[in-house]
Write a structure and sequence with these properties.
alpha/beta, Metallo-beta-lactamase, Chain A, seven-stranded mixed beta sheet, 10 helices
C-alpha cells in the first residue's frame, strides 16, 4: 500500500473511526555533525550496556539499539551507532558475541546513529545491507531537521553493496533472517528485520520506547507512511513478538497494535485540524498529548514534524 493524496482521504476516514488511544514513542538522538572534523569517542566501554533478548545481544549506549547474532564467520550486526562510538561499540560486540569480526551489517536506515560503523565493517570485508534509498543517501551530503549540519557522503566501502526496494532475506547461523521495507515511515528508506524462529522484530527508526518519535519530513518520512509502518508491523508480529525499537526497552506485538490505534486517532485529529486551516504551531499549542508529557516529555517536536509531513503530502504545489 502506497500513500498518496487519494489514500490520504481514505486514511482520514479510517482514522476517524480508530480507537481513542494516546501513547508515546521516542525520537532518534540528535547528532551535531561537523563534516571532516575528527572527534573523540563519546562513550567508554563501561557505557555500553548489553542485554540478552531471545539469544540476541542488544547493545545500547552508542547512539541506538544495536542487535547482534554470532555466526561461524563472524557476527550479524543490525545498526552501528554513531561513528565516534564505533570502535568502543565493535569491541563490546565482539566480546558479547565471542566473534572477531562483523560478517554482515544491516542498516535499518541511513541516519548517523545507524550507520556509524559502516566504514569500519566495510573496510574489514563485511557485507553491508540496506534499502536502496539509504544507500543513495550515503553517497551525498544529507541534511535533516534531526541533526545539525550535514552527514555524508560516506566512503565507498561504507555504502551498502546489497540493497532492496521491498523485501529480502538471508540465512545466518542456520536460521532465516528476513527484512522488509517500511514505506516513508521515519525516512523513505526504512527496513525492519524479522527473526521468525526467535519471534523477534528489530523495528528501526519508526519505533522507540523511551521518548517521542520523530518523522524526518525532509527525507521522505511522513505521517501517512508512519501509520502504514504500524499496519505492516501489526500484520507481521504476534501479540507476544518481542519488538526491539531504535532506542529504549523492548516492546511487544500487542504494544505495537495499541500504538497503531493511537496514531490513527492522532491522525484523525490532524485531519480535523487540517480542514480548519491549522498550522504546525497551532497543533503544538493544542497540546493533544498533554496527559503524557510528565511521562514522556515535551511532544512539540514530534507533533510539529508529523503535522508538517501531513501538509507536505497533501497540499498541492
Amino acid at each position: 500500500m502506497t500513500f498518496s493524496r487519494r489514500t490520504f482521504l481514505r486514511g482520514s476516514a479510517q482514522a476517524i473511526g480508530a480507537a481513542s488511544l494516546l501513547g508515546a514513542l521516542p525520537h532518534a538522538t540528535n547528532a551535531a555533525l561537523a563534516a571532516g572534523k575528527e572527534r573523540k569517542p563519546r562513550v567508554a566501554a563501561r557505557d555500553i550496556q548489553v542485554k540478552d533478548v531471545a539469544g540476541l545481544a542488544v547493545l545500547s549506549g552508542a547512539g541506538c539499539n544495536v542487535v547482534a547474532l554470532p555466526g561461524p564467520d563472524g557476527a550479524l550486526m543490525i545498526d552501528g551507532g554513531l561513528a565516534e562510538n564505533s570502535a568502543v561499540l565493535l569491541k563490546a560486540l565482539a566480546a558479547a558475541t565471542r566473534t572477531s569480526r562483523v560478517d554482515t551489517l544491516i542498516n535499518t536506515h541511513w541516519h548517523p546513529e545507524q550507520t556509524g560503523s559502516n566504514e569500519a565493517v566495510g573496510k574489514a570485508g563485511g557485507t553491508l545491507i540496506a534499502h536502496e534509498v539509504s544507500r543513495l543517501a550515503l553517497t551525498r551530503a544529507e541534511q535533516s531537521p534531526l541533526f545539525e549540519g550535514s552527514y555524508g557522503p560516506l566512503p565507498e566501502k561504507a555504502r551498502p553493496a546489497k540493497t532492496t526496494y521491498n523485501t529480502g532475506s538471508l540465512q545466518f547461523a542456520g536460521e532465516p533472517v528476513e527484512y522488509r521495507y517500511l514505506p516513508a515511515a521515519h525516512t523513505n528508506g526504512d527496513l525492519f528485520i524479522h527473526f521468525p524462529r526467535r519471534n523477534v522484530i528489530v523495528a528501526g527508526g519508526p519505533v522507540a520506547a523511551d521518548h517521542w518519535p520523530v518523522i524526518d519530513y525532509q527525507n521522505g518520512g511522513f505521517m501517512h507512511g508512519f501509520l502504514r509502518s504500524y499496519e505492516i508491523l501489526s500484520e507481521v508480529a504476534h501479540a507476544d513478538t518481542v519488538i526491539i525499537p531504535a532506542n529504549g526497552p523492548t516492546l511487544t506485538g500487542a504494544d505495537i497494535a495499541k500504538q497503531k490505534d493511537m496514531y490513527f486517532e492522532l491522525f484523525r485529529m490532524f485531519c480535523v485540524s487540517f480542514n480548519k486551516g491549522y498550522g504546525p504551531m497551532d497543533i503544538v499549542a493544542e497540546r493533544p498529548l498533554k496527559a503524557f508529557e510528565a511521562q514522556y516529555g515535551d511532544p512539540a517536536q514530534f507533533l510539529e514534524y508529523a503535522y508538517r509531513s501531513t501538509q507536505l503530502a497533501t497540499i498541492p504545489f
